[in-house]
Amino acid sequence: MGPLEIKRKIKHISLLMAYVLIIYIIFPNDAYAMHIMEGFLPFNWAAFWWIAMIPFVIVGILSIKKTVTEHPSLKMMLGMAGAFAFVLSALKIPSVTGSCSHPTGVGLGTILFGPAAMTVLGMIVLIFQALLLAHGGITTLGANTFSMGVVGPFVSYAIYKGAKKLGAPLWLSVFLSATLGDLMTYVTTSIQLGLAFPAATGGVMASVLKFMSIFAFTQIPLAISEGILTVMVINVLSAYSQKELRFLGVFTGKELPIKK
């Protein structure tokens, strides 16, 4: 990687950091809880989402076990994918009472290890944030995992594979995967909140649309930023970790490092 490439990457990272700083200035620190906060969902809905996420977690554990058994050298990259999701999803911006907007970081892990593995990583991230940062909660872990660890990754994976199948360049496939996976996480959160708190007039659909419209104000620019950052990370990995990416089926060797 030449000096010009390094300078361009530093510029991109600086712009992203400036964007995050501006968001924090615009939205003060009296933020609501991360994700859907502890105790916010009625018991029946909290239990429902717990039950819904468990099969995906089981499949994810088996997927991770298979990957690290066949390629033990990928453990560090697996941890990196989890850390990426942890850091990005800890950048909270107030949005809907009882929730907030933030990047999810699930696109990267999904592209590398598949959606099932990212379900487990997402759940672990959410547990640490609930216990250590008081973001989210244990009762709402099922709902938060289902939106960020199930729907987000599976949408990201479908978009990524679909874009590549259609012949899209790698950078565009990665960008669309991370961006749309992030957005679908919040569509799911809006549905979860709408189901739990239907509007007096218009019922569930009116409530869902209201939540989505509020989330959109902050989530659309965040999703685009996450897409750009994920492209940058894959760019670095494609330059320095081609062997690992070949193991994972992400990089065949025919592609050049992403230029974006």
Count all strands and give the number: 2
Oligomeric status: single chain
| Average of pLDDT | 81
Task: Count structural domains.
Answer: 1
- What's the main sheet like? 2 strands, antiparallel
General shape: globular
Radius of gyration using CA atoms only = 18 Å
The CATH class, by name, is: Mainly Alpha
Uncertain runs are: 19-34, 256-260
Tell me the strand order in the biggest sheet: 1-2
Instruction: Provide the helix percentage.
Output: over 70%
Give the structural class.
mainly alpha
Topology:
Layout: H1 3-26, H2 43-70, H3 75-89, E1 93-94, E2 100-101, H4 106-113, H5 115-132, H6 141-165, H7 170-196, H8 203-240, H9 242-248
Antiparallel strand pairs: 1-2
Helix pairs in contact: 2-5, 2-6, 3-4, 3-5, 4-5, 4-6, 4-7, 5-6, 6-7, 7-8
Give a verbal description of the structure.
The structure is a single chain. This protein is mainly α and 260 residues long. It has a single domain (32-248), classed as Arp2/3 complex 21 kDa subunit ARPC3, CATH 1.10.1760. 73% of the residues lie in helices and 2% in strands. It is built from nine helices and two strands, in the order αααββαααααα. Strands 1-2 form a two-stranded antiparallel sheet. Strand 1 and strand 2 (100-101) form a beta hairpin. Helix 4 runs antiparallel to helix 5.
Short description:
By secondary structure, the chain is an all-alpha fold. Helices cover 73% and strands 2% of the residues. Helix 4 crosses helix 6, helix 5 packs antiparallel against helix 6 and helix 7 packs antiparallel against helix 8.
